[in-house]
Amino acid sequence: MTSLHVDVLCVGLGPAGSRAARSAARLGARVLALDRRAHAGLPVQCAEFVPSLIGIDAPGIGACSCQAIDAMDTFVEDERPDRTIPFPGRMLDRAAFDARLVEEARAAGAECRFDTALRRLDADGRAHLADGTTVVAAAIVGADGPRSAAGRAIGQVNRALVETRQVTVPLRKRHASTDIFLSASIPGGYGWLFPKGDAAHVGAGVVPAHRGALKGIVDTLLARLAGEGRIEDRVLALTGGAIPVGGPLVPRGMLGRVGVVLAGDAAGLAHPVTGAGIASAVQSGSLAGEAAALFAQGHAAALEDYEDELDALFGAALVRALHRREALLRSAGSTQALRRGWIAYPEYWTGASP
Length: 354
Fold this sequence. Notes:
The protein is α/β, with parallel strands linked by helices and 354 residues long.
């Protein structure tokens, strides 16, 4: 058995973990970052849309961008769509984006390993890998997704999830807006079409209790779009996954003397209404890596400071979104309730959150 001693262990090499590894290494920390997947960003399990402002935190993102988005069309039941413009964003090549962030982490000095699974974390913070290696770190960054092992180890678990199914299909005509489909028949979520050049991602998300209906919901949406002449009836790819929608968790904890911080989906930072989480993963990952490196250097307050920074950045928006989501789930799914629960409509933003 091999034992490794590092300053910071990053669990997960998605956008949050890669950014954490990079920022910790830049502060002089010895960093080991690992991911159970074989390759960065694969398999792709998201719709690949990001707001344009992500370029502030991820310069050079244009090299990983497939097309620009300038508007959002929202369809409520069978009504005509409401257009939100401007709605600036980009469609990513997510695999290329993730690979770029990993290379930036390596360039900063972090050791990044794929095909390396975390088996368990002990109560004293020792990490046991599937290959028999034991890792002893001063600080751990949990960036391992909505069902985070690091989060579970410190008692922070995402309990509210949305299950998704998404297919990629050819587009008959190029499109520059994201299409959102709100309906009482899509409980706890929504349907979408996100264009990506000559193809589009079409999918839906629902609360886990309705997961059995998910294939039928997506098939119905595909049939509608094909009948309108917008897509070809030919599936190029299929994916799916879970999105945390319960709002932020407490993003810090201790395992013995080892400090633990959570970032991205592991910290519950995905938007409870839209499910968006890439931008918040990048931002929180950078801050988590800094906090972990500072804690490893003896700054005990770094973990609490990290929690405060996350709250300042995301707290108000996530609390509003969580309240809107909860109100929608309690409603009968009227068109008025659907509008109040979606970011495109003034009703979402007016009035104080409950």
